[in-house]
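Most newcomers find our protein records easier to grasp once they have seen one. The structure tokens are whole numbers drawn from a learned vocabulary of backbone shapes. The record below serves as our worked example for the rest of this section.
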Amino acid sequence: MTSSSATADPLLTQAMALHKAGRTAEAEPLYRQAAAAHPRDGRYHYLLGLCLLQQGKLAEGRTVMAETVAMAPLHAGAHYALGRLLAQDGEDEPARTHLLQAVALGPNVAEHHVELGNLLARMNDLPGAIEAFDAALRIAPGHPGIQSNLATALYRYGERATALALWNEALQRMPNLGVARLGLANDLRSRNDLAGAERELRLATAAEPRNPQIRSSLGRLLRYRDDAPAAIVELEAARALDPRSGDTVGELARCYQSICAWDDLDRLMPDIRAEFAKALAGRECGIPPFFALALPATAEERAAVARVRARQVSAQATAEWRGMPPLTFPDRSRDRLSIGYLSSDLRDHAGGHLLASLFGAHDRRRVTVSAYSLGPDDGSRYRRRFEADADRFIDLRDLNNVEAARRIHADGIDILVDINGLTAMARTEIAAMRPAPVVATWLSFPGTSGADFYDYVIVDGIVVPAASERFYAERLCRLPHSYQVNDRWPPVLGPATTRKAEGLPKEAMAFCSFCTGYKIERETFRLWMSILHRVPGSVLWLMAGHDIQLRNLRAAAAEAGIAAERLIFAPHKPKPDHLARMGLADLMLDTFTYGGHTTISDTLAAGVPAITRCGDDFPARVGASLLSAVGLDELICEDSRSYEALAVRLGSDRPALGRLKAKLAAALPTAPLFDTDRFARDLERAYAEMWRIHREGGPPRPIRIGEEAGL
């Protein structure tokens, strides 16, 4: 049957007319009759498949398109349609096969090349994606949408200047092109121009309000700017437009958890569980590795999420490196090891607070210190201190990943320590390019990176017990006390303050927990309310967040029978002032799934004991590590029942609490937790052992730094 005879089929002609008029539901039965009358002619099935797809009948449409390809293996349109469907379902390899076939059979159809380019870009085959978009532009020169897609691939490939020029050229032709503004917004955000990024995303949203990717990106940015309620509006809109987007679900969950909207979080949990299942199956998922640490999940699930992300990082790094030969390192003798610290937190930031004294504490007879900054210069005293204490301080913000890796390599770094890991402002691709002979990760990401490009992760025996070792892709380097470095004791305190000035009752038992909102779970809060109920007159002092978070917590307290005035919220203050007021509290209550880290260190430094429940996984075990390092092991609880009982006992027995505070005060001047010089020596011994293993030529292996010298 020729094409003209197919078109002359009266039944088919009628179906096509209805289809063209948008009456697909009426066209469908006619297409079915025509296809049944010609069971071996793929063209009839192809049109039926298109009709089904346009009605949203994706599963049946995919089946019909697969049948079409089997009947008519040279039908370019069927390969294209099936490839798109497979790509949407995450079946990348078969999708690539069909889209390559569509390009081969229909080389002059720009859409075929564009869809192939989109898929290859998602698969991190950036050279292939660029080639596909270039081919599409040869067919449709100056097409702004294709220019934008090409720019996105080029940007990821490290050709940022070319990409920015293409986006701007596309916008000159089509000012309302959302994908181009999305690209500009991502570039602005990478340079920490959050206001500029929001401006571009709002313009993009106004131009394309039904584009789920743009709405989701705007929501993600607003969440990052601590405006969770506004972020939720955008993310819920994005989810309504694309219910299958795991990234949007993950961002929504982060927002709801940050404002303690636990009912909304529970509503999303089936989808969150589905995203974890994807990760366990080795597929991309929408849960960022850092947020996975704060969700109720197993160590295996969190490790799976990290592995998926690490695989993406490796692919991105390989694409950016463009097949250049690996960096080489001359085997030369050295009197001192050259240590490079890579971090976005060398500023007034929780991570920067922990690191504040380390660079200056290092023994220059053993090591030299190079600091590679990825974050903004906030002009703070922390930033100036890092610049002064490092032997070399290099700002990498304006270098792309390849340039940054080459700079680190040129500096002759022996051991590169990535402090960020898989956190928000990380540029993990730099570590993946292996710019130093030994690469380790440490401090900011409490878990495995899932990456084979890190030789070591620096931990301690409490945060990663023997039972958890199997989940780690890196070799474990255990320090003798806590893995967490801290600024020297005594801390720098602001002016003295009073309970009255901070809104606290003069005589009441004041429990506190200054952890950020996303760490406060329903189970944790219910237990806290039970403690308040059992310690009459006591109050709970919390860090203030968004107004809606405060309303949610007060409502949850009321539901538990606790008066609103027994929750007291502390506004944000500069670090010295915050530390000064923390000493007014009596006892800190740790969170559970993701416990306090810097928060507990700050509380202890202020002279306030903390109670923790030692969980199964790293983020839930840091409190135990910190308390052990100040000699307060008796405050480490095995379960919720013992945690509550201890809090109630200490809250009701002021003399016992006083003795505990006195014990902490006596320990602070010499405790390993705040002895930065001692920590630096332990870290230097760890580096020396890493280097010795490297020089021997064998693979990295586990390291345990003991108390005795020479290990």
User: Anything to note?
Assistant: The first helix runs from residue 3 to 7. DSSP finds 33 helices and 14 strands in the chain. Residues 1-5 have pLDDT under 50 and may be disordered. The two ends are 83 Å apart (CA to CA).
